[in-house]
Design goal:
The chain is mainly alpha-helical. It folds into two domains: 11-109, Arc Repressor Mutant, subunit A (Orthogonal Bundle), CATH 1.10.10; 133-241, no CATH class. Helices cover 46% and strands 11% of the residues. It has ten helices and five strands. The strands form two sheets. The protein has a three-stranded antiparallel sheet. The longest helix is centred in the middle third of the chain and has 16 residues, at 133-148. The chain is elongated, with a radius of gyration of 22 Å.
């Protein structure tokens, strides 16, 4: 499956009965936030004051989102906290409501015009040579052959390797992340060596990040505890270090 390029998604999709089916999935709620975000700066006037709504922001409330997504407000609050911990959004409260800012919004809109439409690229007059089918087939066969040599580890093997290296990586989090993803990394590539992946994780893992990943996994599985104390604590610690 390709992860490159863009797919045209008109905001009118939200008027389709299929889209309106509730409750929303987590992915659907995330896409909905992207669709709700302002695609350009705009101003409004209230009580004699000028209010600026920045590009990439959503001004809403927990009540509105819970009604729109078919969730209770506690679930909406947890979902937004997970997005914030993963640095996908920033959240601020004001007298206008909850202001959600999409981080790196331009990444999702680089191919758009200022009125939110998609620009079709101008065809290049230069015709690129078509790759040889034989070479392409040989390349694919070589890649497939290399991958067939990979055997996914068991959880116990990962734990043993973590103990052997005295690694800061949480073995269960590492194993759960890759096994659920069918041993495909974050770039969409098949894992060749799980030990090398674990060593790479060591460069970025801290106890806080391990806990953050665990919270995200628990949330997706629906096992997150009702209280938000742990999530709030991680948020406060990150803000203090900023």
């Amino acid at each position: 499956m390709s992860t490159q390029g863009y797919v045209k998604l008109h905001r009118q999709i939200t008027e389709n009965p299929i889209w309106a089916e509730k409750p929303f999935s987590f992915g659907q709620a995330w896409i909905d936030l992207l669709l709700m975000a302002n695609y350009k700066d705009k101003k409004s006037y209230k009580d004699g004051n000028v209010i600026l709504y920045k590009r990439g922001t959503v001004t809403t409330s927990l009540y509105i989102l819970s009604d729109k997504w078919g969730w209770d407000r506690k679930k909406v609050r947890k979902f937004l906290k997970v997005l914030e911990l993963d640095e996908m959004v920033t959240i601020n409260s004001s007298t206008r409501g909850t202001i959600i800012t999409i981080v790196n919004y331009d990444i999702y809109q680089d191919s758009g015009t200022t009125d939110g439409t998609t620009v079709s690229p101008t065809p290049s007059p230069t015709v690129s040579p078509t790759p040889s089918p034989i070479l392409k087939k040989e390349k694919n066969e070589k890649k497939e052959k290399n991958y067939k040599g990979f055997t996914p580890p068991t959880l116990e093997e990962v734990k043993e390797y973590v103990r052997e290296r005295k690694s800061p990586v949480d073995a269960e989090t590492f194993f759960e992340y890759f096994s659920k993803g069918n041993w495909i990394d974050s770039k969409g590539n098949k894992v060749r060596s799980w030990k090398q992946k674990l060593i790479t994780w060591e460069k970025y893992q801290t106890p806080e990040k391990n806990q953050k990943q665990k919270l995200q996994n628990d949330f997706i599985e629906g096992n997150l505890a009702d209280d938000l104390d742990e999530i709030e604590r991680l948020s406060v610690e990150r803000i203090k270090r900023a």
